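> forwarded from #structure-qc
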């Protein structure tokens, strides 16, 4: 179990070399809560489950960031508090029930408390992502390649998930197609293409920072049982680092080109939300 975090500690930035042109993200890296929230009325065991964070992602992204010398942004709070990979108007932004677990600390919840969590955690995290992308853009002189790392459970409602890894995406194939091809070329992986769920989600991290701005990107999921210990994390570091490096060397993945979203037309610039 992670230690409690101080009020307002919403993110951690791993600096890397901004000239690299690569940005790594880990929205659900940690399962921490600020002390004033206790455990949201949940047992301690809930915070070892996927409902609280993406198991294995924090050590994997730390290792990838160090090996590739690439900047990374890690979310420092449990998604049970508020989910940074949801838009501010998404009904699943603050979950009242998750995979059968009722979350007493999230229901009932006032509009003031929702705004407080947005101001203390959700918005600061996204400001850090924007600042990191801006820094890499300025240092490299081109659009960065953004790769977001997540993990998923090996089974859902009793049904096994056969994919060892999956790529979730909306409507920009530039980084996705070569990433899927490289993973399939490993020879021993079954790669999900928008499996086990669809990657087109209005207002999520990839939508906000990449789809809406034209930045090349991909979201990769690794099955949690494969990165639940140090040996698994090291194996996937060795798999992914050369693939990410090869993608990052492609000039076509450092060009702004905004694709239409499958979720519908873009509206006001999302960065205006970050100024609130």
């Amino acid at each position: 179990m992670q230690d409690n975090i101080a009020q307002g500690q919403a993110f951690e930035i791993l600096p890397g070399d901004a000239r690299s042109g690569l940005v790594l993200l880990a929205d659900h890296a940690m399962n921490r809560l600020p002390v004033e929230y206790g455990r949201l009325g949940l047992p301690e065991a809930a915070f070892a489950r996927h409902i609280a964070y993406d198991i294995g992602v924090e050590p994997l992204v730390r290792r990838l960031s160090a090996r590739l010398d690439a900047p990374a942004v890690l979310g420092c709070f449990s998604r049970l508090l508020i989910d940074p990979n949801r838009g501010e108007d998404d009904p699943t932004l603050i979950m009242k029930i998750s995979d059968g677990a009722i979350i007493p600390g999230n229901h009932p919840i006032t509009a003031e408390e929702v705004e407080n969590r947005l101001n203390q955690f959700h918005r600061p995290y996204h400001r850090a992502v924007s600042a990191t992308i801006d820094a890499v853009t300025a240092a490299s002189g081109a659009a960065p390649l953004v790769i977001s790392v997540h993990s998923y459970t090996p089974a859902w409602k009793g049904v096994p998930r056969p994919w060892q890894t999956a790529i979730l995406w909306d409507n920009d194939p530039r980084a996705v197609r070569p990433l899927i091809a490289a993973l399939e070329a490993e020879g021993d992986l079954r790669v999900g293409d928008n499996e086990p769920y669809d990657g087109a989600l209005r207002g999520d991290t990839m939508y906000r920072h990449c789809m809406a701005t034209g930045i090349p990107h991909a979201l990769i999921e690794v099955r949690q049982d494969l990165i639940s210990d140090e040996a698994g994390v090291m194996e996937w570091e060795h798999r992914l680092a050369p693939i990410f490096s090869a993608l990052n060397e492609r000039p076509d993945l450092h060009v702004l080109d905004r694709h239409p979203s499958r979720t519908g037309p873009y509206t006001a610039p999302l960065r205006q939300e970050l100024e609130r």
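QC bot note: The two ends are 32 Å apart (CA to CA). Residues 75 and 275 are 19 Å apart (CA to CA).
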